[in-house]
Design brief:
The chain is an alpha/beta fold and 253 residues long. The protein has 2 domains: 2-93, Alpha-Beta Plaits (2-Layer Sandwich), CATH 3.30.70; 99-250, Nucleotidyltransferase, domain 5 (2-Layer Sandwich), CATH 3.30.420.10. 46% of the residues lie in helices and 17% in strands. The protein has helices at 7-21, 28-41, 49-59, 75-87, 131-134, 141-156, 172-180, 186-201, 217-223, 227-233, 247-250, and strands at residues 2-4, 25-27, 68-70, 91-93, 99-101, 107-111, 115-120, 123-128, 164-169, 205-210. The strands form 4 sheets. A 3-stranded parallel sheet has the order 5-9-10. β6 (107-111) and β7 form a beta hairpin. α1 runs antiparallel to α4 (75-87) and α6 (141-156) packs across α7 (172-180). The longest helix is centred in the middle third of the chain and has 16 residues, at 141-156.
Amino acid sequence: MEAYLLLEKVLRIQEIIEYFSKRNSCTKRELLSLLGHLNFACRVIVPGRSFVSHLIKLSTTVKKLHHYVHLKSCKPDLVMWSKFLKDWNGVSFFLNDNITNAADIHLFTDATPSSFGGFYQNEWFQGDFPYELLSCEQTSMAFFELYPIVMACVLWGDRWKRKRILFNCDNLATVDIIKKGRSKIPSLMKLMRKLTYHSAINNFVVHAKHIPGIKNCIADSLSRYQMMKFRALAPHANAIPTPCLHPSELMMV
């Protein structure tokens, strides 16, 4: 079964978002009106709910309907909504009830403080974190672990339509960020916007579960460039890796 938004409704929401994107502040009444439109859209666009929750929280920072709310913190979110609605065809299929464990579809990701890797049904990627990310004070192990998860979703997410994908991760902070769909750290939010955008476009949802000391041998060998070990663990893997996106493409401002 499928759910959809009428074209005129999509265009109307686009107009409203564009209007708010150009403003630095608005009244609580105006913000609640925007929330009404976005909440309606989220009946169909499930991954967008985490971004609506941030606007709801923002609306509680003032008491009276005529009081003004600053919009600076949510402008990147509005840009993401605007881009999504322009690219989306207006239709979403109902998600499967069952959650698919990433390991069951041979999907693995891992990272070290300097490099990362990912594997999906004999396709794979690996890369080094560029210096500008390593030297950023906002970069943390949560960022490193989230990075290849988002990379996998962008590269292979078009094959996961209607699925609820459960990533197992040994970093509790990363799991918490995926569950909430948000982070206070700007660099992590850039990754989460990209993740939300692609999961909404391709009609899947990402879940995460914390498993201490998870055995993740295939992705671990890729992230550490242990290629002989990787070939032994995945003898049928493609000879050539899938090209990675540049950080500027993977992180949505």
